[in-house]
Write a structure and sequence with these properties.
252 residues, alpha/beta, Rossmann fold, 8 helices, globular, binds NADPH dihydro-nicotinamide-adenine-dinucleotide phosphate, binds 2-hydroxyethylsulfonic acid
């Protein structure tokens, strides 16, 4: 069987673009998200176009029981996952700390941090048994510099950076690679979700500059995944040429 890559949050944005990129290179895919109809359409498209096998694993990464049961339910031949891309995540709201919605905080912490922890733990035993594997965690420039009204979203992404370091240290004895990739602003469904369907607010995020595209991030994930066995990119920050960091954006 060809290499197997497991991508969370594959129904949109970076996750979907990664699925397309890795399928093009002949990887078999396990694709996760909650919107099953989107996963079905993606599976159909990739299997027809690239002659790879695609396994759908629809679950909510926040649901610990469902994460472990779903991974456990994989057919034996699918359990040897070579690469896990922990990508599922979101921002909800952009509000002052004292005005933010508490449920939004819970959802971001449960998805961006706890979801990543659960999926990693569920997938790891097979990697450890084989003595090889690679986990790529999608962080953000929001995990590098905290910005106004970013509070809990930024905190979850700082946590992704910290847990990636911790995983790299603790998994060293199993020879499992851990890479944290921190993209800057990219035009996906991210802002529509963050601003709860307010299309004008979402569009305004990308006005006046050229943001990253989902494909740009997928290309970087693919590059990190393709390095020789003895080489690991530990951490990587990528932004549009029009962005320096969370604060500095060159807008026309
Ligand atoms: P999108 O909104 O386009 O995609 C998010 C993906 O995450 C969807 O497939 C969604 O699927 C999935 N997802 C969300 N919640 C859950 C959940 N509870 N369980 C399973 N899947 C879930 O956003 P992006 O592609 O932009 O974001 C991907 C990652 O990149 C996120 O972690 C985000 O924080 C990060 N990021 C984004 C940046 C940007 O500017 N766009 C920049 C830096 C980092 P579904 O709803 O079907 O479950
Ligand atoms: C998403 C990028 O700048 O909106 O992680 O925080 S930003």
């Amino acid at each position: 069987m060809n290499k197997i890559i497991f991508i969370t949050g594959a129904s949109s944005g970076f996750g979907k673009a990664c699925a397309e990129k890795f399928a093009e290179a002949g990887y078999n895919l396990i694709i996760n998200a909650r919107r099953t109809e989107r996963l079905e359409a993606l599976k159909k498209q990739l299997e027809a176009r690239h002659k790879v096998k695609v396994q759908i694993l629809a679950f909510d990464v926040r649901d610990r029981k469902s994460v472990f049961e779903s991974v456990q339910s994989l057919p034996e031949s699918w359990k040897s996952i070579d690469l896990l891309v922990n990508n599922a995540g979101l921002a909800l709201g952009r509000d002052y700390f004292d005005e933010a919605v508490l449920d939004d905080w819970d959802t971001m912490i449960d998805t961006n941090l706890k979801g990543l922890l659960y999926v990693s733990r569920a997938v790891l035993p097979a990697m450890i048994a084989r003595g090889s594997g690679h986990i790529i965690n999608i962080g953000s420039t929001a995990g590098k510099e905290v910005y106004e009204k970013g509070n809990t979203y930024c905190a979850t992404k700082f946590a992704v950076a910290a847990i990636s370091q911790a995983m790299r240290i603790d998994l060293l004895r199993h020879q499992i690679k851990v890479t944290a990739i921190h993209p800057g602003a990219a035009e996906t469904e991210f802002s529509m979700i963050r601003f709860k369907g307010d299309a004008d607010k979402a569009a305004s995020v990308y006005e006046g500059f050229k943001p990253l595209l989902a494909e740009d991030v997928a290309n970087v994930v693919f590059y990190c995944a393709g390095l020789p066995e003895h080489v690991c990119i530990n951490e990587l920050v990528l932004t549009s040429t029009h962005q320096a960091n969370s604060f500095y954006l060159f807008k026309r």
